[in-house]
Specification:
Length: 306
């Protein structure tokens, strides 16, 4: 694999407009985009189901990114191909399990439970005893949500936790992909691989409705808001941002999800659910702040660069 510093840095004479945008702003823009896209995607479930919606979203995003970046497979090392394939599986698994959870849970709750993934990354990078307290605080929040009754479905909770595990893999793999491939070429190839993984379940769930022009238009908007735009922004941010800082900024996701769910879907959360979400957010921020810079560097260029 090429030297990470060389692979990640664009030529000095080819400074891009995105390089002038602070990395935290890129992450926050990605947060808002993905939650609006998720709320819009939920409106498609009655027509093509969660798996059909994910297939449409990832497939259309792959088309956009392949046209934009025009990545080349020729000349890639096997290690790079394996990396892209693994990233594609992580993307497919994260989106599929999250949308399945979203079919059973309000948007804000699904995102909050899914946050065990980024929290796990932050705790693993920190390796401090105090992180046990953050982990327990997050667990308390998840338990409050799971046992809150009402709209909280047990299978939905399990699916959201599964999405969190895939999200952790995404965070760590994305930093490697961002260093190994210029621009968004690695992301485009990973989206293509993810689409291939989703073909069987997506076609089975969506059927002929996947070709409906109106649904395709909504799916295209979802693809841009939930996949192409935020993933590209996050990859750019992770090139210049420590993973612990990335985790702190992502802690705004539950709040953004609850707001999008309320404004777009009319989903109202009970006081108990809002408190539980707050516990998870506080745990994520605390654990991410405790992550050591050298540990973050190891995760970016050590074990995950093998």
């Amino acid at each position: 694999m090429a030297d990470p510093a060389v692979a990640a840095a664009p030529p000095r004479h080819a400074r891009r407009p995105v390089d002038a945008v602070p990395p935290p702003a890129l992450v926050l823009a990605a947060v808002g985009s993905v939650q609006i896209g998720a709320a819009l995607a939920k409106s498609l479930f009655d027509e093509i189901g969660p798996a059909g919606t994910v297939f449409l979203r990832v497939g259309l995003a792959a088309v956009v990114l392949m046209m934009l970046w025009r990545p080349r497979l020729k000349g890639l090392a096997r290690a790079d191909l394996r990396l892209v394939a693994a990233f594609g599986v992580a993307l497919a698994g994260m989106n599929l399990s999250f949308y399945a959870a979203l079919d059973r849970l309000p948007l804000g709750i699904a995102v909050t439970i899914e946050f065990v993934g980024p929290l796990g990354v932050a705790v693993a990078l920190s390796r401090r005893r105090t992180d046990l307290a953050w982990a327990l605080l997050a667990a308390l929040g998840v338990v409050l949500l799971a046992e809150g009754g009402g709209e909280v479905d047990p299978l939905g909770v399990l699916l959201a936790l599964t999405a969190g595990a895939f999200w952790a893999a995404y965070i760590l793999l994305s930093s490697r992909v961002g260093r190994a491939f210029p621009g968004g070429q690695g992301l485009a190839l990973a989206m293509l691989a993810g689409t291939a993984v989703l073909v069987p379940v997506g076609v089975a769930d969506g059927g002929g409705s996947l070709l409906d022009p109106g649904l395709l238009a909504i799916g295209f908007a979802v693809a841009l808001l939930s996949s192409a735009i935020p993933y590209s922004l996050e990859l750019e941010a992770l090139r210049r941002l420590p993973e612990r800082t990335f985790g702190i900024l992502l802690s705004t996701e539950p709040a953004a999800a609850a707001l999008a769910g309320f404004a777009i879907l009319g989903e109202r959360l009970a006081a108990r659910e809002l408190v539980a979400m707050g516990l998870v957010v506080v745990a994520c921020v605390g654990a991410a702040r405790a992550a050591r810079p050298d540990a973050a560097a190891d995760a970016q260029g050590g074990a995950w660069a093998a």
